[in-house]
Design goal:
Shape: globular
Structural class: alpha+beta
Number of helices: 22
Strand content: 15-25%
Radius of gyration: 29 Å
Largest sheet: 14 strands, mixed
Distance between the termini: 23 Å
Length: 776
């Protein structure tokens, strides 16, 4: 199924004008057809293609055209299916083109208006994941004349990617993080079409861009096999003691010695891997800009993960692109240069850390930034490396923390002279970071508050695109859910895409026209064209977790009321229960050591009830479909045998069925992002058989039951009440399935692992689960 939301309805006059502009201004079907055979340069070669393809299940196209038979809808869509590359699907439907188009979800028009039908066909997706008009372009249909051509509200790939300008400049920031008395310079790499047109700009702020220090990063990973310790209840978690030392002297701006029309540094290849969505837009007349920021190779400063200074430096790049800040041609001459090729309309793009900084810069309200397309982005760093008073790792990265990530991207190490000059300062800076993050305490304090961008959401003036995987346990769904909720009452236009993947991009997914939608979106935001993108693009686009290639449009996410389950003796019921259940958070040393190295196996064994270190509760078997929409709330009365403790919870879908894989499958097809430019693999989510699927998780320190900021007292065998939300989701439960709740302590993938002999007791009379169900 092809889900196309990025197409707009235009009147017949506009259709004719656009068809004329792209060279399909004919009322003769054979003329249109032969013109679409871009790869076949002679009449005879086209005839060969026509003989190899069918008009009906009994006649090839050449004979059909030669005998001058009338064009019917059946013939048109039989041929159209082959033009789009859906030959296998067509054969499976007995060469019924109309049925094939319906099966694929592609538009069908009457052939009485041939131009309209052809216009619709050009706006249909091919088997190669591109619009038909874009695929023709990738085959060289258009001359790459470096001029913008819009079709159905979207820029076509008419810019020559073999003649791109690649140049570097150095933006002077307004921060001095290395305390040398001068504002830090950051290198900015620009890739743009060679045209006299003023270009809209896609800016990706990527600390990864200038290279990674993987060996140094691995050496700095923290040991997570450490015991949980008791917290001092008299400590002030809101203390400002963690503030960074301020620079004593006000930094000096550089004196401008003159201006240059051209950059003095050029390059032939990007320093880091380009973002595929950016590559898509390069051939469509957009400039692409990368900056790794302060504390990276060829730039000044110290690397400080997510800090206000890091955000400010990236904001400063936006200011230069918008014509509001100075940049220099190199780091020493003080010769200034302006972005005279920019139309001063900027979008920020990127996934993970890249999308995080895009979101953060948006909260500054910087002028010139028009929109953000953030994917799998962090909105609150505390909830990336901490959770409810616990030190928690992103999924798959036990022991990582703010200082570890900073070590990974402090790429100044790669230049020997720069490293020798900065090594002592960097080591001292990292020692401070480790102290400020406080892996023993795990509380929310001043350090984390300055890296919580939700505090400044009210300053966001731009329209926002957010993309997140509901199975992303690296940057967990709460990051986007809380941002989405915080934006709800602001006047900005905001769109969100919820897919079933992990920590991935979705712009090369077969079943959703994400790149097309962003093309339409940026036409409106950066080209100032009214193409109704705000109205056309869905508010919430959700990928169905039960069916391949199914996407749905929703009005909202997380608006449902919660229904209550009571926790009973290994069951979830609608009636309150009584009694106690126990489990001990301890494993024999050999088993513990094995799961530390194989936490995926630990999770499977936990879900299937093979371990004594948890309790599993299951609902009734559902007889009808229902959907979990938002945050599940766990209410738990529990006691620990010691004066410390943590609780983890997991919600599981139990049912022998097919489930979408969390990692999409390569379809063996390569998408061209221009004309022989930046190929990327076409991906699709496929299904596999399983008896269960983890839906969501959550963790809490028993001493932080009131707040992540507050240390509560805890005594051995003292019952305490917990109320905490699990990671939000939008998940469809099918008939014949059961909802499962697993309560445990140590999470081998995400929490610290002390293997302490702590016994936990659950009071069933005061324990429940609030689930935001919507029923069909």
């Amino acid at each position: 199924m092809i889900n196309q939301y990025g197409r707009i309805a235009v009147d017949s006059a506009t259709e004719l004008e656009e068809l004329r502009a792209v060279g399909f201004n004919s009322e003769d079907f054979e003329t249109l057809l032969r013109r679409a055979l871009t790869n076949y340069k002679t009449y005879e070669a086209q005839n060969d293609w026509l003989r190899e393809h069918v008009a009906t299940d009994e006649q090839n196209i050449f004979l059909f055209l030669e005998t001058k038979q009338p064009l019917t809808q059946a013939v048109f869509y039989c041929i159209a299916a082959q033009l789009l590359g859906f030959t296998e699907a067509l054969a499976g439907n007995g060469y019924n083109g109309v049925a094939t188009f319906r099966q694929l979800g592609l538009p069908i028009a009457t052939v009485n208006n041939l131009r309209h039908a052809w216009y619709e066909l050009l706006n249909s997706h091919t088997n190669n994941g591109l619009l038909f008009i874009d695929e023709l372009a990738s085959q060289g249909y258009f001359e790459s004349n470096n001029h913008r051509l819009l079709f159905n509200g979207k820029s076509l790939p008419t810019y020559n990617t073999n003649d791109l300008i690649r140049e570097s400049v150095w933006v002077e920031t307004s921060v001095d993080t290395d305390n040398d008395g001068r504002f830090d310079l950051v290198q900015v790499d620009i890739i743009r079409p060679n045209t006299n047109e003023k270009l809209p700009v896609l800016f990706t702020a990527s600390p990864y861009y200038q290279g990674l220090n993987e060996k140094e990063n691995d050496a700095k990973v923290h040991d997570v096999n450490v015991p949980l310790t008791r917290k001092d209840t008299h400590q002030s978690a809101l203390s400002n003691l963690n503030q960074m030392e301020e620079t004593v002297a006000k930094p000096l701006a550089r004196q401008i010695n003159g201006y240059a029309e051209e950059a003095s540094v050029i390059f032939t290849q990007e320093a880091g891997k380009p973002v595929d969505l950016n590559q898509y837009f390069l051939s469509r007349g957009y400039a692409v800009v990368y900056a790794a920021g302060i504390g990276t190779r060829h730039s000044d400063g110290m690397q400080d993960t997510g800090s206000p200074e890091q955000v400010e430096s990236m904001k400063n790049v936006v200011e230069w692109l918008a014509g509001n800040r100075v940049a220099f041609t190199d780091r020493t001459s003080n010769i200034a240069i302006v972005a005279n090729w920019s139309n001063h309309n900027i979008a920020m793009t990127g996934r993970s850390y890249l999308g995080t900084l895009a979101t953060a810069v948006a909260t500054t309200g910087v002028s010139g930034l028009k929109t953000v397309i953030s994917e799998a982005a962090i909105s609150n760093w505390y909830q990336y490396y901490r959770d409810n008073g616990l030190v928690v790792a992103p999924g798959g990265f036990p022991g990582e923390d703010m200082d570890v990530l900073a070590e990974l991207v402090y790429s100044r190490i790669k230049d020997p002279a720069d490293w020798l000059k900065t090594k002592k300062q960097w080591d001292d800076f990292q020692a401070n970071t480790e102290k400020f993050t406080d892996r023993v305490n795990g509380n929310y304090d001043y350090y984390w508050d300055t890296r919580n961008y939700l505090n400044q959401v009210k300053n966001i003036k731009v329209d926002m695109i957010m993309v997140h995987g509901l199975n992303d346990w690296n940057v967990k769904p709460r990051q986007v859910y809380q941002l989405w909720s915080a934006l709800r009452d602001l006047p900005n236009v905001k769109k969100i895409y919820l897919h079933q993947g992990q920590h991935i991009y979705i712009n090369n997914n077969r079943s959703l026209d994400f790149s097309d939608q962003m093309n339409l979106w940026l036409t409106e935001k950066l080209l100032d064209k009214d193409v109704k993108a705000n109205e056309i693009l869905p508010t919430v686009t959700w990928q169905d977790n039960t069916t391949e290639d199914a996407w749905h449009v929703l009005d909202e996410w997380g608006a449902s009321k919660k229904g209550k389950y009571y926790i009973g003796n290994n069951v979830l019921t609608t009636n309150q229960n009584s009694g106690e259940l126990n489990f001990k958070d301890w494993l024999p040393e050999n088993q513990f050591a094995y799961y530390c190295e194989h936490f995926d196996k630990w999770r499977d064994d936990t879900i299937t009830g093979k371990l004594p270190t948890n309790q599993i509760f299951e609902s009734e078997t559902y007889t009808s479909e229902r959907t979990v929409d938002g945050e599940i709330l766990l209410n738990l009365r529990v006691k620990s045998s010691q004066n410390i403790g943590l609780i983890s919870a997991m919600v599981v879908d139990y049912g022998n069925d097919t489930y979408l894989k969390e990692t999409p499958t390569n379809q063996g097809v390569v998408i061209d992002r221009g004309v022989n430019f930046s190929p990327t693999d076409l991906m699709s989510f496929e299904s596999e058989k399983s008896a269960y699927k983890m839906i969501t998780i959550g963790h809490i320190n028993l001493q932080n039951r009131t707040s992540p900021r507050q240390n509560d007292d805890l005594w051995p065998n003292q019952y305490v009440d917990l109320h905490f939300e699990l990671q939000p989701t939008y998940y469809k439960m099918r008939p014949g399935h059961q909802l499962g709740l697993i309560i445990y302590a140590t999470d081998f993938e995400m929490t610290i692992r002390g293997n302490q002999s702590i016994a936990y007791t659950i009071d069933l009379s005061k324990s429940s689960l609030d689930v935001p169900f919507t029923c069909k």
